[in-house]
Design goal:
The chain is mostly helical. Helices cover 69% and strands 0% of the residues. The two termini are 27 Å apart. Keywords: Transferase.
């Protein structure tokens, strides 16, 4: 869980900021590839760590739940697809009933509507 939030997520959030908040800045075109490369570096490290395993630490855990949620933020950029084992990992995570329940509860909390 700590790796998801303190190691993998920061460059992903930086990418979101670069695309959404800073895109109108004159230096954004030069900065964006640097930020994307930092995301690729982190995902490359994670890809090696995951290897061909289904989950990060044996059985599906809260750490996987957190990591899948963090990795979802990379989908719009297309960077996740550059790492087939991570894309498959995210798909496995999203398919799990525990993930779907957690995501529905989070969405309900964020939107103020009860889960379906």
């Amino acid at each position: 869980m700590f790796a998801a939030l303190s190691t993998v997520e920061p460059p992903i959030l930086d990418l979101s900021m670069a695309k959404v908040v800073e895109s109108d800045r004159p230096w954004s075109r030069e900065r964006l590839p640097l930020v994307q490369d930092r995301v690729r570096e982190r995902l490359g490290q994670l890809s090696v760590r995951l290897g061909d395993a289904d989950w990060l630490d044996g059985a599906f855990s809260a750490g996987d739940l957190m990591m899948v949620s963090v990795l979802l933020r990379t989908r719009p950029s297309g960077i996740l697809d550059e790492f087939p084992n991570l894309a498959a990992y995210v798909a496995r995570g999203e398919a799990r009933p525990a993930y779907q329940r957690a995501f529905a509860a989070q969405l309900a909390q964020n939107t103020g509507t009860p889960p379906a």
